[in-house]
């Protein structure tokens, strides 16, 4: 009986700290970041995202092969090489009104973002 009371008190204390204070916000954020990193690694290992990226890559390259210069084609290949690079590019250059890239022209960057 005492064991259940201790578990109930521990659960109540954990609930209080998680919902009523900000004491657990940082550890929760760190845990979520670790879980996200693990999820990305598992996705890369299973190949699920790689297949989707390969499909998008082939569609994108088929549409813009004649538009891009050699340097831009090389940059496109490096962007689409890994799921992390792909996601980072989308977050950095395809969110909002960011229309500048060190390699791509403004029109080509807009075209790439529209087709991702």
Question: Would you mind describing this structure in some detail?
Answer:
Helix content is 77%, strand content 0%. It is mainly alpha-helical and 116 residues long.
Give a quick set of tags describing it:
116 residues, mainly alpha, 6 helices, elongated
In short:
With 116 residues, the protein is an all-alpha fold. The chain has helices at residues 2-20, 25-46, 48-64, 70-79, 83-93, 106-115.
List the helices and strands and how they pair.
Blueprint: H1 2-20, H2 25-46, H3 48-64, H4 70-79, H5 83-93, H6 106-115
How would you describe the shape? Answer: elongated
Question: Would you report the number of β strands?
Answer: 0
Global mean pLDDT? 78
Please mark out the parts with pLDDT under 50 across 5 or more consecutive residues, or reply none: none
The total count of helices amounts to 6
- The amount of beta strand, in percent, is under 5%
| Helicity, as a percent range | over 70%
State the order of secondary-structure elements, H for helix, E for strand: HHHHHH
Radius of gyration: 22 Å
Distance between the termini: 59 Å
Provide the structure class.
Answer: mainly alpha
């Amino acid at each position: 009986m005492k064991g259940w009371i201790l578990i109930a008190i521990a659960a109540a204390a954990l609930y209080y700290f998680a919902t009523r204070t900000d004491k657990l916000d940082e550890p929760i954020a760190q845990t979520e970041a670790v879980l996200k990193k693990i999820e990305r690694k598992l996705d890369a290992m299973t190949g699920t995202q790689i297949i989707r990226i390969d499909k998008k890559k082939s569609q994108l390259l088929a549409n813009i092969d004649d538009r891009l210069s050699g340097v831009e084609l090389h940059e496109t290949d490096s962007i689409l090489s890994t799921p992390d690079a792909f996601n980072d590019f989308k977050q950095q250059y395809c969110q909002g009104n960011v229309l500048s890239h060190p390699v791509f022209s403004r029109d080509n960057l807009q075209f790439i973002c529209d087709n991702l």
